[in-house]
Amino acid sequence: MKTMIGSALCLGLLLASGSAYAAKAPKACAVSDVAKLKEHFEKHVTYPAKGKAIKAACKKEMPNEFPKSEHSCIDKKLKNGVEYKSAEEVYKALGIE
């Protein structure tokens, strides 16, 4: 009986910690054309680059190629003062592969 209660408690803790992690995990930006977005980050941004410079390049080079919701997500995910050393670091920050 004690083993059964202990097992139930462990299972409950695992489930609770898993749902807490899922709640904290950053959601990826929903991007309609990942290939186009990656091409932009690879061709129009010189690395290392601060988030502020990357966002400015997005607005300058591709102001109307992506919906406002995608630009908004990028604005939220990329931090102005953070220096991104490569496009891969930007993808990771945006939650895209």
Describe this structure in words.
The chain is mostly helical and 97 residues long. It has a domain at 34-94. The chain has helices spanning 2-24, 34-43, 51-61, 68-77, 87-94; strands at 49-50, 83-84. It has a two-stranded antiparallel ribbon. The longest helix has 23 residues, at 2-24. It is globular and about 25 Å long. It starts with a helix and ends with a helix. 13% of the residues are buried. Mean pLDDT is 76; it is low at 1-25.
Coarse structural class: mainly alpha
In total, the number of strands is 2
Fraction in beta strands:
under 5%
**How are helices and strands ordered from N to C?**
HHEHHEH
Mean pLDDT: 76
**Helix residue percentage:** 55-70%
Strand line-up in the sheet with most strands: 1-2
Low-confidence stretches: 1-25
The largest sheet is: 2 strands, antiparallel
Distance between termini? 47 Å
